[in-house]
Amino acid sequence: MNLSEVQLDTTQLVGNVRALRTLVAPGVDVIAVVKGNAYGHGLVEVVRALEQDVDGFQVDDIEELRVIRAVSSKRTLVLGYVAKANIDEVVELGAELAVYDVERLQFFAEAGARHGVRPKVHLKIDALLGRQGVVPGDLAQVVDALRTHPGIEVVAAYAHFANIEDTTDLGHAYDQIEVFEAALTVLRSRWPGIGRHLSATSGLMTVEKDNDLIRLGLGIYGMYPSTSLARRHQDLGIKPVLRWVSHLAQVKTLPARHPVGYGLTFITPREMRIGIVPQGYADGYDRGLSNSGEVLVHGCRCAVLGRVAMNMFAIDLSSVPDAAVEDEVVLLGSQGEEAITAEEISSRLGTINYEVTSRLSSLLPRS
Asked: Which residues are catalytic?
């Protein structure tokens, strides 16, 4: 028995992809975004489960690419930064790379020549996001530089939406599309067949149109980018696929007026039965859940008492009188009719569901 682990419902994972495909136009490729250890779900486990149901994968860096290549040869996009020293390896491993400056094109071309391939690149346009990408004013310079490297294959241009999941006002999204379309017109005068992609899950659920591929991340894990999109697409039937479970490491009774945990932030108001859960902020259980989080034991909600420590925290077992050592504790996911959701945790922490799952320690066993 693993004392603590992340459990995946791979059947539901595949079901989520198939449900989201109903929103995707025919002929459009679905790329599963598995960066950040598959949003904390487990990179290897997710890639293996989705191998037959997606058209490719997207990661951020070479470390993630190496992990994928150990289990899959499927099309993989590496859209984060790749250091000069690693370009050769990325090309050898057959990944498609992001381009957003001219300085490293020579390294791409040289690596391709050494391995007898044409490196495939996706040109990132900074369409009113202000992050990674080529601003439209510099586009001509990048196009000119690419002309001098015919050994590089320009597969697609792409961008990211900046404000599409935190608002119901899509004005900025349409402004972004306009900027992107103008850049694409310039690029297609040089590469008529160049592809395009803008949408992640939120884009697919709102403004998706005319793209060649979709970068599906959050949705495949059964989470929605916002409550408004969850309401709008509730009939899709996507559901969370992750359970984070541990087991009680100790059960004991404390007298009244007894401190619990560091900082003396909780003092028992009466005699209390408590349990010790062997997980903490080193495992991804946020310290911000001190005295505010809840977990499930025997299908009942149990409050976190005192501060969450690096590797353990205490819970109130008053409502579960028959709880015993090694009984299951659910930190995230369902148990019986109750569930602790990533949205609930993120609301308590003032963050987003993406962060809650992505911060789960990669050292936790996945099953």
From this structure: 35, 262
